[in-house]
Specification:
12-stranded antiparallel β-barrel; globular; 258 residues; 13 strands
């Protein structure tokens, strides 16, 4: 289960994506000044392929994420996240640096970064408690044909695998797209290209449907990545992107304007 609060486009700007994040990757959208976003995100740990005995993966257990984001200005967002996977706690910031482009091809650019601590890692071999990670992202978004939003998110990730004795550097490429078929319904997908490493051998893929109502975004997802905080999902996943490894998840977004 996932709950995230999302924002409309800033006054006078044409939004590329309607939400400040895709399934996992960020978008270049920011919140109006003074707004808050509250988040609860869930990914079911059991695969859909386990069938009726596991209620097609919905019997759990689940990984969840709680978050809160505040926008001190129209172009800046500050957030805090916590995932129950290894009790990963993150502080992050996103800054919109460009909004424009031709009328038929609106574009947006933002930068984002965060630092995280794994306060209760499991099965630790080389890491110590409170092992830290950090990342920095460039977010480039564009709208094609008025209905198809695309995003490219090149990322630097420090210490992708906390069990290594020494921290490593990783460079990751995130790709995402969303087809808006109406004001209320859209289809989304994303792919995160990462280097193969022990226990995280596969790229993470996600697809699903988004339903929008007044102030809410409901995202129903299928994915091979159960981990959600950025320093965890960017490094890769142990599961292949094949139907027998797919898992359900969902995000629900809601803007809290003040």
């Amino acid at each position: 289960m996932a709950l995230v609060l999302a924002a409309p486009a800033q006054a006078g700007a044409q939004a590329v994506f309607h939400s400040h994040e895709a399934a996992n990757l960020p978008t270049a959208e920011t919140l109006p000044s003074g707004a808050l976003v509250f988040e609860i995100s869930h990914r079911f740990d059991r695969a859909v392929s386990e069938g009726a005995d596991a209620f097609w993966g919905l019997d759990g257990p689940v990984l969840n994420r709680l978050g809160l984001v505040y926008a001190p200005t129209n172009s800046l967002m500050l957030g805090v996240l916590r995932s129950n996977f290894e009790d990963n706690v993150e502080l992050n910031a996103k800054w919109s640096v460009f909004e424009g482009g031709a009328g038929a091809l609106p574009a947006e650019v933002a930068v984002m970064g965060g630092v995280a601590w794994n306060t209760e890692p499991t099965e630790v071999e080389g890491a110590e408690d409170n092992e830290s990670q950090l990342y920095a992202q460039l977010i480039v978004n564009a709208m094609l044909g008025g209905r198809f939003a695309v995003g490219v998110v090149p990322t630097y990730l420090r210490n992708p695998r906390i069990r290594d004795l020494e921290s490593q550097n990783a460079f990751v490429l995130g790709l995402n797209g969303q087809l808006y078929v109406s004001d209320a319904v859209s289809f989304l997908g994303e792919w995160i290209v990462s280097e193969e490493r022990a226990g995280l051998e596969n790229d993470a893929g996600t697809f699903g449907i988004e339903l929008e109502t007044r102030g809410h975004h409901f995202k129903l997802l299928v994915t091979n990545q159960a981990r959600m905080n950025p320093t965890q999902h960017l490094g890769g996943t142990p599961s292949n992107f094949t139907p027998d490894e797919w898992r359900f998840g969902f995000n629900i977004t809601r803007l809290l304007p003040f």
